[in-house]
Specification:
CATH superfamily: P-loop containing nucleotide triphosphate hydrolases
Number of domains: 1
Largest sheet: 6 strands, mixed
Structural class: alpha/beta
Shape: globular
Order of helices and strands: EEEHEEHEHHHEHEHEEHHH
Number of helices: 10
Number of strands: 10
CATH architecture: 3-Layer(aba) Sandwich
Length: 269
């Protein structure tokens, strides 16, 4: 525990066997050119859980999540995905993990020159050997799931921001992953589109049992979708708890970070 870290600190029972967790970070630290961004991160996510990850810009939220698909390597510590440690894996050894864990990037990462169909089909063609008829069926199915049926032949520039976000989600779920990682899924969206994306995240959990980590600056969205909310501050998981329990903490750092959210919620009452 570092200086000024809250005495009431919600964490997990890391005595459980690794197979009990979908995702586990143990003593994870990360430095860039001598600048330490993350320090001794300990965090575990249960199967079927949605964890919202919040904190000020530059606290390492995206870095932490990108470690789960091998885009960033920790300086020290261990990461387990579905009970399998990922340290030292070759690119080939990462492949089965990336079939189980999918990431929806903040900017959607859609190819402008490809149709919606080709964008969503892309990971299927990269990771699986499927007949075109099955690819076609899967693309149509996930577009139904994100409430955008029949837009296969449109291009990303023809879609609204909210629609592009949902196409990005469709591409994330088309491989039927067990874990979905969302990087700012509602950034730049209007309230109606934000609610639609939040509802999708919860529906994937409810109907498909998908485990999710949601990075967001939208505290209302974080509280709405998260079974627990992890607050990153000063390079550590400062607090992690269900939304109501987190807001009830007396720690001044937590109180300060969530003050604006509390005031907004009080105005709505």
């Amino acid at each position: 525990m570092i200086a000024n870290q809250p005495s009431i600190f919600f964490t997990e029972d890391h005595g459980k066997p690794r197979s009990a967790w979908a995702l586990e970070f143990k003593n994870i630290s990360k430095s860039f050119d001598g600048n330490q961004v993350l320090r001794d991160i300990n965090l575990a996510i249960e199967w079927g859980e949605i964890l919202s990850l919040v904190g000020n810009s530059g606290t390492g939220k995206s870095i932490l999540v990108k470690m789960l698909i091998g885009l960033v390597q920790p300086t020290s510590g261990t990461i387990s995905v579905g009970g399998m440690e990922t340290q030292g894996l070759s690119e080939m050894e990462w492949m089965p993990i990336r079939k189980k864990v999918s990431m929806v990037f903040q900017a959607n990462a859609l190819f402008d020159s490809m149709t919606v169909y080709e964008n969503i089909a892309y990971p299927l063609r990269q990771q699986f050997d499927l007949p075109e008829s099955e690819i076609k069926d899967r693309v149509a199915q996930v577009l139904e799931w994100v409430l955008l049926p029949g837009i296969q032949h449109q291009f990303p520039h023809e879609l609204s921001g909210g629609m592009r976000k949902r196409v990005g989600v469709a591409r994330g779920i088309v491989t039927e992953p067990q874990v979905l990682l969302y990087d700012e899924p509602t950034a730049g969206l209007d309230p109606v589109s934000t609610t639609a994306v939040d509802d999708m995240i919860k529906r994937f959990q409810r109907e498909r049992g998908v485990t999710s980590i949601v990075i967001t600056h939208d505290l209302k969205s974080a509280m709405n979708v998260g079974d627990r909310v992890a607050f990153l501050n000063d390079g550590v998981v400062w607090a992690c708890a269900p939304p109501d329990a987190l807001l009830a903490l007396s720690d001044p750092v937590v109180q300060s970070f969530f003050e604006g959210y509390r005031m907004a919620m009080e105005l709505l009452q």
